[in-house]
Design goal:
The structure is a single chain. The protein is of the alpha/beta class and 274 residues long. It folds into 2 domains: 193 residues; 62 residues, no CATH class. Helices cover 47% and strands 16% of the residues. It contains 8 helices and 6 strands; from the N terminus they run H-H-E-E-E-H-E-E-E-H-H-H-H-H. It has a 6-stranded mixed β-sheet, with helices on both faces. The longest helix is centred in the C-terminal third of the chain and has 39 residues. The relative contact order is 0.10.
Length: 274
């Protein structure tokens, strides 16, 4: 991961800090993206976790906001190409709706919502800067479903004349070009101010160390899983426990785990030769 000085607006930590600590910039950016006036914020959260199941499964939104018209906005920074963007947008939309239903317990109270992905690349390869999706009738495209759910993919790298100059300037800035618009200049200043805050530097470093610890734990668990899988294969091919201990350097606990898994998969092979 990057060190703190290398962070740009396209990095999740910086993106969330800039927009949630500068509501006026978040408001201006949303109006630029959506192309209409946005109401006053009644809620503005960074990386808001939504957990709706007993086992804690849910989603963490980058920048989640609601305005005084009852409209919900989820703004996500997608810095890397990912083939699952469409399914992710569907999942996020669903989690927004479930969260709203949890709060109101009535689907008729579902609010107008926007799921927005900001991408420093062309997510669909069609040369557009903005791809907007709403539910329409396939047989009669002029008939909209009217569910008030909109997904927007804002993309750098387009060549179409489909958005304003300010929008093109913002998207160019995401790819490292120097921005000229007032919005980009203000965002640049906000990025610099975030980098000057010592407490946020400490917060970032804490998150960085936590992520590294989780990655290390994952690697260790992966190595343990690989060792157990090798042991199971060895035993199922006629190897003895004593041979396994000597040749594979496994422990009694490894043997116990391997035998337990073998029993669950194939009861007929419960006992190994000693």
């Amino acid at each position: 991961m990057k060190n703190y000085e290398q962070l740009t607006f396209t990095d999740d930590f910086m993106f969330c800090k800039v927009l949630t600590t500068n509501p006026e910039l978040c408001h201006e950016l949303l109006e630029l993206i959506i192309g209409r006036k946005v109401g006053q914020f009644t809620r503005l959260d960074k990386q808001q976790p939504i957990e709706l199941t007993a086992d804690g499964k849910g989603v963490r939104f980058d920048v989640y906001s609601e305005d005084d018209t009852g409209t919900v906005y989820d703004c996500e920074m997608q810095a890397t190409k990912n083939g699952n963007l469409a399914k992710r947008s569907r999942y996020y939309q669903g989690m927004i709706d479930l969260n709203l239903i949890e709060r109101s317990a009535d689907y008729r109270q579902l609010k107008k919502s926007y799921v927005i992905f900001i991408c420093p690349f062309d997510a669909f390869g069609e040369g557009l800067h903005k791809y907007t999706f709403e539910n329409l009738c396939k047989e009669r495209p002029q008939i909209g479903l009217g569910d008030e759910a909109t997904k927007i993919f804002l993309c750098a790298g387009g060549d179409a004349d489909d958005v304003s100059d300010d929008m093109k300037d913002f998207l160019d800035w995401l790819t490292g070009k120097e921005g000229r618009s007032k919005l980009v200049q203000n965002l640049n200043n906000a990025v610099r101010k975030v980098k000057d805050r010592k407490e946020w530097r400490t917060e970032y470093m804490t998150l960085l160390m936590r992520d590294q610890e989780m990655m290390q734990k994952g690697r260790e668990e992966g190595r343990e899983q690989g060792r157990i899988d090798t042991l199971i294969t060895f035993l199922e091919n006629g190897g003895t426990v004593s041979e396994a201990k000597k040749m594979l350097a496994v422990s009694d606990e490894d043997i116990r785990i391997a035998e337990s898994r073998r029993s669950a998969i194939s009861p007929s092979q419960k006992n190994s030769k000693v």
